[in-house]
Design a protein that fits this description.
This protein is of the alpha/beta class and 613 residues long. 39% of the residues lie in helices and 20% in strands. It contains 22 helices and 26 strands. It has a nine-stranded mixed sheet with strand order 2-1-11-10-12-13-14-15-16, with helices on both faces. It has a five-stranded parallel sheet with strand order 4-3-5-6-7. It is globular and about 80 Å long.
Length: 613
């Protein structure tokens, strides 16, 4: 792939799908508990018919089309249909509030929207009623019951309402009249045309529409393909799993990569069913954020703590080995360390891998920092687990780990077409053909994220080692400045608490305060079980006794974690929260990042009490 105007992202991906047409099976989507397969031929037909249908509805080059659907092959069909006629996709998180959806539809002047019947309810109809630009609502046929169909098309304020099946029928009729209608539209698309508008969920403020061009994403895809940890031949036709939202550019890029080496993508229905899906699909690879891997890690530790006698000793010995495992310099096969590791693999690690389906080669993690403990664990048990770094604004990949240089704590080296530098204040700055031209209709915000000499300001604090490996410390805005003048990066402290296996979530606070404190969400069931096993809590304790013992236990976890940090970084006070942070309650973004300002505001009284003591 080159950057010439004809070679847009659509041309690259469509060529990959066309090459797959000899294979009957392209992938599947889990719908209502059943895997629904899709062939490459059907994918290509549906994409072309949807593209022609959009053109017949007077939706074409430069028009904005929203995608408000669950992860599915239907999502990718619509995505490529939109791309192929030069229209601009505007993906919307399914977890967004009605107000946020209405803002995006209006701000982006969306002309049409693809919507799943799962979300085409009365609230949706009310939301889109007053969006003046919206002319067409297209409801996803594959998830429709007769009731859903009647309800979904019962009257949003659009001029045209139809199903994807109806859209494809319209497109097929249009192609009969002009067989080249889609190809003619595709030829008008240039590499610097806008491909997508992605409204960042953001940890603060109003969503911003990140503009990404065909050149942005296509150039990133080309370079990222050079860094996959296996050959194209090894990846060809492999089974992969997708659970992260396609609305986010990370999973979308991952799926573009999958299409490029003809992987069979299986879209999960509910992330809570991941353990079941892993066993059913037995994937070769999947992409993740650290949060899911932390839960899997904690589950392994909890299960190990239930063992007794010799089994417990073997488990503890195997886990202890992982604490010092170095993926960059693994033990040599016939060395004493290598023999011990092979024994640990046979007795313990292989059984853990079975929980991932038994055929998993590896996992790529992004979206947040992967802690050294988790990095050592995942790679030590025999799975390739690498991490990359980037932002929506960078399409997204800036760096990714080299499979031969898996440096602990690093996000790897920059892609070949990416330049990085560290500013005087420690901020990571970048230049690359994948970097956004700016935020849609927001020139002031665009100017703020570029330096005078044209470097993009990532907002992350980091460093580069002598070999060019990037290490991210924290978000620039997340750094806490204590009243003593000391700066504290909260992420490593939070990671240390979560890695105990007994704390599910933690947020460190202390900005403009004298010391650090923490808001913690413990794993109550795991703590109770541990306390009962250790004889520190009766099976049916009085509520006040249980609270006291849990408080003491969490304090012991914090005390142990504090030894890893400088005095000003240690947690002096903490509060146990009754409810976990979630997207629904507002503390997390759709990509599971903590909205620190929201948390600080919501728990202001709790925080004040910590410092009032």
């Amino acid at each position: 792939m080159t950057s010439n105007d004809r070679e847009t992202l659509f041309y690259a991906l469509d060529a990959a799908v066309m090459q797959s047409q000899g294979r009957e099976f392209l992938g599947s989507t889990k719908v209502y508990g059943e895997w629904q397969p899709l062939t490459a031929q059907r994918f290509h037909e549906r994409r072309k018919h949807q593209a022609a249908g959009l053109l017949a509805l007077d939706i074409g080059h430069g028009d904005h089309v929203a995608l408000y659907m669950e992860n599915s092959w239907d999502w990718l069909v619509a995505d490529l249909a939109i791309q192929s006629i030069g229209a601009v996709s505007v993906p919307i998180y399914t977890t967004m509030s009605a107000d946020s959806i209405a803002y995006i539809l209006r701000h982006a002047s969306v002309k049409a929207i693809f919507v799943s019947p799962s979300f085409a309810d009365a609230t949706f109809r009310e939301t889109v009623q007053d969006v003046a630009s919206l002319k067409t609502v297209i409801c996803l046929s594959s998830r429709m019951s007769i009731h859903h169909q009647a309800e979904a098309l019962a009257g949003p304020g659009a001029e045209v309402s139809l199903t994807t099946e109806g859209l494809e029928t319209l497109g097929a009729e249009s192609i009969k009249t002009n067989p080249a209608v889609v190809e003619e539209a595709a030829r008008t698309v240039k590499a610097d045309d806008l491909l997508t508008l992605i409204y960042t969920s953001g940890t603060t403020g109003t969503p911003k529409g990140v503009m990404l061009t065909h050149r942005n994403v296509a150039s990133n895809l080309r370079e990222a393909l050079k860094r996959i940890p296996f050959t194209m031949e090894e990846g060809y036709g492999q089974v992969v799993l997708s659970y992260l939202p396609l609305t986010h550019i990370f999973e979308r890029m991952i799926c573009y990569l999958y299409l490029s080496f003809h992987a069979k993508i299986h879209f999960v229905e509910d992330v809570k069913e991941m353990p079941v899906d892993l066993q059913e699909v037995k994937p070769f690879m999947f992409a993740s954020v650290p949060r899911l891997l932390e839960k899997l890690h904690a589950a392994v530790l909890m299960r190990g703590r239930d063992l007794t006698g010799a089994q417990r000793k073997i488990f503890d010995w195997a886990m202890k080995r992982l604490e010092s495992y170095d993926p960059e310099h693994p033990p040599k096969a016939f060395s004493p360390a290598g023999i011990s590791h092979k024994l640990a693999d046979r007795l313990v690690y292989a059984k853990i891998r079975e929980r991932f389906g038994g055929k998993l080669f590896g996992i790529v993690s992004a979206g947040a920092a992967l802690s050294p403990t988790l990095f050592r664990f995942m790679n030590g048990i025999g799975l390739w687990c690498g991490q990359g770094y980037g932002l929506t604004e960078t399409s997204p990949v800036l760096t990714i780990q080299d499979p031969t240089r898996m440096r602990v704590g690093s996000t790897g080296k920059a892609l070949d077409n990416v330049a990085l530098r560290i500013a005087e204040d420690g901020e990571v700055q970048a230049k690359a053909p994948s970097i956004t031209p700016g935020y849609y209709a927001q020139p002031e915000q665009t100017a703020e994220v570029f330096t005078k000499d044209g470097w993009f300001k990532t907002g992350d604090i980091g460093r580069l080692d002598d070999e060019g490996n990037l290490f991210i410390t924290d978000r620039k805005k997340a750094l806490l400045k204590l009243s003593t003048g000391k700066y504290v990066a909260p992420q490593p402290i939070e990671d240390a608490l979560v890695q105990t296996g007994f704390i599910e979530q933690a947020v460190v606070v202390g900005n403009e305060r004298k010391f650090c404190s923490a808001l913690v969400v413990p794993s109550m069931d795991s703590i109770r079980k541990r306390l009962v096993m250790d004889g520190r809590l009766p099976s049916l304790p009085a509520p006040h006794i249980e609270r006291e013992k849990i408080q003491e236990f969490v304090q012991s976890l914090i005390d142990a974690a504090n030894h890893r940090f400088s005095p000003w970084e240690t947690i002096k006070q903490f509060a146990i929260l009754d409810a976990p942070f979630s997207i629904e309650s507002g503390e997390l973004t759709p990509t599971l990042k903590v909205k620190r300002s929201f948390v600080a505001q919501k728990y202001q009284e709790v925080i004040d009490q910590l410092y009032g003591n």
